[in-house]
Here is the input.
Amino acid sequence: MGVRNRAPDRIAKLSLEARDGFCQGISKGDMGAIMASGIEIIPELCVRDTAAARAMLTGIFGFAGQGDLLALGEQRIALVQGAGDIGHGGIDHLALAVSDVPAALSALQARGAVLEETTPNGPGHIAEFWDAGIAYVFLRGPEGARIELCSRLPADTRTGLPSHDHIGIPCTDIAASVGFFSGLGFATVHSVSLHRPDGVTEVRFLSAGRSVVELYEPPALRGAKNPFTANSFWRGLRLIGSGLAAGERTGPDGLRLTLI
Here is the structure.
């Protein structure tokens, strides 16, 4: 969450929590059916040193698990082996829901967490969302991968936190990205246009099963051609439980998705 002019490699980031039944355009009953459907997206985190990444995710962020699949609440991460120069790409970040951002940040910093340059001065706020706004902060994950903490204000009352909040995906054509995820069974649960000095950023949140994706199209990316590095930290997504035929899909902006 936050609005800044950034180069495509470090884009202006906008987020909001969109996983409860009061989201725009979908009833509480329909949301319950979606959340109970068993669909799950697992982001793939590509790093050069998977052992060090596992140690950081478990020792600092609180994930648990064996091998290359780790979990924190309803959020799972798949570690994959990478090589060379890895950067920020078409999947920008993973966001974890917490009940209180400053308290969670303090606890994680005590374990060695480091602020990421998107929020160098600590937590930020977006007052436009929900009754009292939202709080957010970005931390450096393994090898610099972005991990966000976010919560509703004055306190996030969801149970089972910390856990999954969303996966942040910047877009050059948000309508095309919405269409791609809609074809996979996702439903739009919140839409917003954020007006800032550098222009309007369109944000859409889509949900299926336990997973939420945040699609956002800032002015700097709108209509851009091939702005993302292929060798990125958040390399791809694994979609489980959709009922669709297994295999690889390629979405807008080269997004990699594996149906399992």
Residues 70 and 77 are 5 Å apart (CA to CA). Confidence is low (pLDDT under 50) at residues 1-36.
